[in-house]
Design brief:
Two copies of one chain form a homodimer.
Chain A (H helix, E strand, L loop, with lengths): L1 E11 L6 H12 L5 E16 L2 H16 L5 E8 L10
Antiparallel strand pairs in A: 1-2, 1-3
Chain lengths: 92, 92
């Protein structure tokens, strides 16, 4: 068994309303930020999985998205494999 | 002015409690998914910005994170530039 760090990005489907994104867009305008055309908000799920292979890890994560993490009616998801356990992020 | 599609990933800082991640971890166990070691949940913000340069777009997004999007005490953020407007994601 190997350990895989997967990143799952779940976003509202294009064309669907995104109230949270709209609210953030409005707040950014109120704060004086200019040039913002669109804001969409999604969910980020970091999964640390033990699996025999990378393919199997991705397959399991796909099943997790279908059964629990994403709403198939309103959301799309994308799974990527991180080379190393996430460090939690830093400003780019 | 050019238009930039930025992806902002906001995650709970390592070591901090993540109740939503714990809840999802528990739910995955209940659904019979094996080999899940850890689950952390963050936020994904897609920003479409008009800015004179990529550097300026990233700088603005960094300010947005500091002032509104991320909680500096509990969260880290990372900003990446997408080459083209996001298509909303598909299963990998």
């Amino acid at each position: 068994m190997n350990r895989f760090q997967l990143e799952v990005r779940i976003k509202p489907r294009p064309g669907l309303l995104d109230p949270e994104g709209k609210a953030i867009h409005h707040a950014l305008d109120s704060l004086g930020f200019e040039g913002v055309d669109d804001v969409r908000v999604g969910k980020l799920v970091d999964l640390q999985l033990e699996a025999p292979s990378e393919e199997e890890a991705i397959e399991r994560a796909t099943q997790m998205c279908r059964k629990l993490l994403a709403n198939p009616v309103t959301e799309n998801f994308r799974i990527t494999v991180a080379n190393e356990p996430s460090d939690g992020g830093r400003p780019a």
